[in-house]
Write a structure and sequence with these properties.
This protein is of the alpha/beta class. The protein has 12 helices and 18 strands. It folds into 2 domains: 172 residues, Carbamate kinase; 161 residues, 2-Layer Sandwich (VC0802-like), CATH 3.30.2130.10. Helix 1 crosses helix 4, helix 6 packs parallel to helix 8 and helix 7 packs antiparallel against helix 8. The longest helix is centred in the first third of the chain and has 16 residues. The protein binds adenosine-5'-diphosphate (ADP), aspartic acid (ASP) and magnesium ion (MG). Aspartic acid binds next to helix 6.
């Protein structure tokens, strides 16, 4: 079998853990498999590098940030390769560029355009274990790019797709995908299976156990994805097609996203095309908008409220300022002390009352709901951040996910 194994930050968090990873990889190789390893930076390393940059500037160039941030993964890839060679294996470390990962030009949030797997295939054919620095690629100018935070998951899935691997294993610090973050609700249950669509919702709604774009890619390329722990031999969670799952539960999980901020625009000129102007400007600057509410005021103007990731708030402010200068928006305000809790499940498609139960759970816990959005398989609510954990535990109990 050809297996891609990805090890996240905690799994390579110190030198002993890198040795532990080397032992796992070695075992897989000795069992007769071809092994391609993708690694993250040591845990905390990427944040540390971001902190270093912030010491000098609040607006560093994105190209410089990519040069800086991509270095963390090179450290772990080379150390793991050194450890494997020392154990008698033939291993080779590769940057994203060497692995043939070509991205678009969007520094810090680049999308993979193509993978040229020839260099990887050549090394695999000669029996080597390849260890690839995750989270990075190269654009057509030859500059290093990064794939957005948590992007090593995407590297692994894309590589598994390009190599037509039999399996892609994502090793992390929990035993698999749980009904909610087990660090918030210790009664959370590990799932044996979850569909791509549900996992995609959970991931894009804040369950950082997998980067959402990696799940999207796994679905598109039909990659068999397993999430499991690098610290135990327990079986993980298989992420697969909905039709492979015999009986889907009504609700499969609760997600929490603390990295949301709310932007409120007051006195927005009520004319055709204003929403298009504002949101197009935000989109061309790569700002991800989530919930949007528009209401009409008595004076004929409108108010628009929307949410963005906290990391995009400075960029969003600059764009809103342009509209304030031209007089099309009267004033703006920002609230970073919010969070989004979401209930996810494909069973919602065919059942009623799921949203009502979410709202009554908030009511029972005296939590005010600021914004609501729903889709076929999720209900999301924006609430004050101080109630985040209370809301997650309340919902987990209401939908009987601990049973
Ligand atoms: P890695 O460094 O291996 O990429 P991450 O920290 O990105 O790991 O993701 C693993 C973490 O995701 C877990 O430690 C857990 O706290 C969190 N998490 C959030 N939601 C879930 C969930 N539904 N199931 C499992 N883990 C979750
Ligand atoms: N090191 C990067 C991050 O912390 C990528 C990853 O770990 O997946 O975001
Ligand atoms: Mg991660």
């Amino acid at each position: 079998m050809l297996i891609v194994q990805k090890f996240g930050g905690t799994s390579v968090g110190d030198l002993d853990r890198i040795q532990n990873v080397a032992n796992r990889v070695s075992k897989c190789k000795k069992a007769g498999n071809d092994v391609v390893v993708v690694v993250s930076a040591m845990s905390g390393e990427t944040n540390k590098l971001v902190g270093y940059a912030e010491h000098f500037s609040s607006t560093p160039s994105r190209a410089d940030m990519d040069m800086l941030l991509s270095s963390g993964e090179r450290v772990t890839a080379s150390l793991l390769s050194i450890a494997l060679n020392e154990m008698g294996h033939e291993a080779v470390a590769m940057t994203g560029r060497k692995a043939g990962i070509v991205t678009n030009m969007h520094h810090t949030k680049a999308r993979i355009e193509v993978i040229n797997p020839d260099a990887m295939k050549k090394e695999i054919k000669s029996g080597k274990i390849i260890v690839i620095a995750g989270f990075q690629g190269v654009n057509e100018n030859g500059d290093v790019t990064t794939l957005g935070r948590g992007g090593s998951d995407l590297s692994a899935v894309a590589i598994a797709g390009a190599l037509k691997a039999d399996l892609c294993e994502i090793y992390t610090d929990v035993n698999g995908i749980y009904t909610t973050d087990p660090r918030i609700e210790p009664r959370a249950k590990k799932l044996d299976y979850i569909s791509y669509d549900e996992m995609l919702e959970l991931a894009s709604l804040g369950a950082k156990v997998l980067q959402s774009r990696s799940v999207e890619m796994a679905k598109k390329l039909n990659v068999n994805l397993v999430t499991r722990s690098s610290f135990s031999d327990e079986e993980g969670t298989l992420i697969t097609k909905e039709e492979n799952i015999m009986e889907a539960p009504l609700v499969s999980g609760i997600a929490l996203d603390r990295n949301q901020a709310r932007i409120s625009l007051v006195g927005v000129k009520d004319r055709p095309g204003i929403a298009s102007d504002i949101f197009n400007k935000l989109a061309t600057n790569d700002i991800n908008i989530d919930m949007i509410i528009q209401t009409k005021a008595y004076d004929g103007s409108t108010s628009i409220d929307f949410t963005v990731p906290v990391s995009d708030i400075e960029d969003a402010k600059n764009i809103v300022d342009c509209f304030i200068k031209t007089g099309e928006i009267k004033s703006d305000s920002y609230n970073e002390n919010i969070c989004k809790v979401s209930v996810v499940g494909v069973g919602m498609k065919s059942h009623t009352g799921v949203a009502a139960l979410a709202f009554s759970t908030m009511a029972k816990n005296n939590i005010n709901i600021n914004m609501i959005s729903t889709s076929e398989i999720k209900v999301s609510m924006i609430i004050d951040e101080k109630y985040a954990e209370l809301a997650v535990r309340g919902l987990h109990a209401s939908y009987e996910l601990d049973k």
